[in-house]
Every structure is written in structure tokens, then in C-alpha cells.
Amino acid sequence: MQSGGKSSGSLIRPPTVIPIPSGWLRWPSRPGTMPGPCANRSSKGTVPTMPNHPSTSSAPRLLGSAARAQRRGTLVYTVSRANGGIVLAPPARARYIARTHHAIETATTWAEFRRLAPRREYSAILRHWDDDGEPRPRGTDRFDSESVPGYCDGDYPAWLQQEMHEHVPAEILRRFATRQSTFLNGSYWHIDQERLAELIVVLEGLGYEVRDGSSMGTWH
After folding, report:
1. Which of 17, 24, 94, 166 fits a disulfide with 89 by CB distance 3.0 to 4.6 angstroms?
2. 10 within some domain
């Protein structure tokens, strides 16, 4: 999957993948696990409870005021409903992916999808028809999420847990994240949601503003 633009600062590239034995997909489809995104457009399985923005007053302040004084930008967080891990992204990137998900999950015609989706994503999807030498869907044609190449397999749109190294400092990933693998969708950064309060303290100490982005829709 393609990722968003790179930010400045100390970043890290994905290390060696640590395989996990459960054979996870991004959206597990084995019996007894959460259905994939196309299994039911109105309900995508049980969504983990999103913790309230935690109080960090009792958490240890690990960095000095000089580090906190240098503002480095804003990150939003949510919990992945696929694996229960924390997802971090810049607000603009999260909004872009949320808009794409919303368009795919709610549009009923191709004209409606064109209106709802980011223009770049709409054009990229239609190029699949051009590459196959097929006529493009008409605006009045019925739209379904299964029409979007890669969506039901979890390959589209971008999976932001895979690109956290482009937005989150290397020291944060070394301390809080593990690299886990999926059966089909590659590896991703996993941060246990139980560490959210401590994570926020450290990010704020590095100069980041951290916000709860769970109300923005699906962007993970």
C-alpha cells in the first residue's frame, strides 16, 4: 500500500518482521474472528471500546521542559478495530483516509462515490478499468464496496499502522511498538492501548500535541 508524505525529524524504517503464529490478516476472515470490511457494510464486527483521553497527571514526566517547549506538530490517535492497537497519524492524513473509507462504505452509486471520495482516490480507482481496457462505470451504476480493487482484501485504502514510522519519532516506536506481521497484508506497528497514557506523556514531552481522533471515523 502507498503511504502519505514523510515528515521531518528522526524517523525509522521498518525493522525485521516478527512473525506471529495466529496467521492474522489485516481484517481476519477465518471462522470465529472479526469479518473483513466487505462482510457486512453496516457492521464490521465488534469494535474495541475507545478509551477516553487519559489523564496524564499521575504519569511520570520523563523529559525536560526544554524539550516540551519545541512544538513538533499534532498527532491524533484511535484504536484499530482489526487488532486493538493504537494508531497515530497527523490529522490531515487521518481525515483523508477517513473520507476515503466513508465514501466506500456509504456510497450507493458511482456518482455519489465520486462526490464523497477524494478526487485523487476516485481517479486512481477508475484507472483499474482503463488498465483492463474496460469501460468506466457510469454515474448511475450501482456502487458497492466490493467494486473497489483491494478493499475487501484489506489492501486499500492505506493502512496507517503500517506507515507510523513516517510520522512518529524512532525513539517512540522503539519504546512502545512491536513489529507484527499479517498473513496477507504485510507487517505493521503495534502499540498496546494499555500504554496510551504513558505514550501521550512522552509525545507531549517531545513537543507534540496529541488529540483523540476516534470521532473522525474510520482511518486506521
Report:
1. 94
2. no
